[in-house]
Amino acid sequence: MECYLNNLRRRSQTREAVQAVVKNSGYLMMETSYFEPYDTFSKCSGRTAKEKTVKVINNLGEIEILRPDITFNIIKELSNFYEAPKQLKLCYDSTVFENDLIEGIKEKRQIGAEYLGNLSIEADMEIIRLSCQVLKMTQNSVLVIGHTKYLEGLLKEIQVKETSKLEIKEAIYKKQPLLLDNILSTLEIRTEIKEKLLMLLEVKNFDLKAFGQGFMNGDMKIALSEIGFLIDNLNQAVEFDLSLLSQFDYYDGIIFKGYNKGLNVPIIRGGRYNQLSSLFNKSIPAVGFSVEFEGLMRSVKND
What does the angle CA 71 – CA 126 – CA 116 come to, to the nearest 5 degrees? Predict the structure, then answer.
């Protein structure tokens, strides 16, 4: 019994500590709907397999899903009344849902923060610093930072079907260099572009200058410029990886994940997603992060 109670106390203390990180930085707690229209969410679902979403039928016979992600719902709700250039700092502590093909429907607690209405790299830095504060509660963890515009810039230079581009992104997402090489070998791609794509998975120690050599376009230059700014100004122990991708396809700038080095899944996910609000006919610059609470509990320091 005492062991059970101690575990409850530990979970409560950790949850309150994460909440304090964002609340003490001026983020206001909010709650959103548990439901999302299936068709709308599918436009930005990225690598979220359809069979992993929990589907329901509403009273109009329309398919909805129990949210697998809270960020989407926040933007959907704010789109009804947001007025530029208002800046908002919002946070949440709630539940997302996943249909596990073996264990069935799973509820997962997420705690996170969203900084809305600010396009600046300083806003990205604030969110990254908050993420690093949370990671300090854990043992043997690291924050890895990337930038989606570098890869997207390269993909713009390739004249192939969208399905082929998705295959390239999937191989990079799964960190499979041999598969990536096989895919590229079947496509008509300039050598300099192919070499840059392969480099994403070949580089072990990030070198900003090396990624800036050879072919560069506007998106790639933006990515390296912002990564360089973070390197010069962040003052945090982080790593960089331009092959970093998310299961959700709405990120369009800085992206990051926080890992416990002994676990194979992220504790923290986040990044910039300026274009997500366009699904609701709005333009709301945004950057944020979420904490996978169960993963955090497995990694938290024991005093």
Answer: 40
Give domain 2-147+256-299's CATH number out of 3.50.50.60, 3.90.1570.10, 3.40.640.10, 3.30.930.10: 3.30.930.10
Residue 263 neighbours by CB distance under 10 Å: 14
Q: Would the CA dihedral through 182, 185, 188, 191 be positive or negative?
A: positive
Each residue of 194-211: pLDDT tens digit?
Answer: 999 999 999 888 999 999
The 3-state DSSP class for residue 189 equals: coil
- Percent helix, strand and coil across the chain, each rounded to 5? 40, 25, 35
Domain definitions of the chain by residue range: 2-147+256-299
Global model pTM greater than 0.70: yes
> In Å, how far are 130, 157, 166 from 191, measured between CA atoms?
40, 12, 20
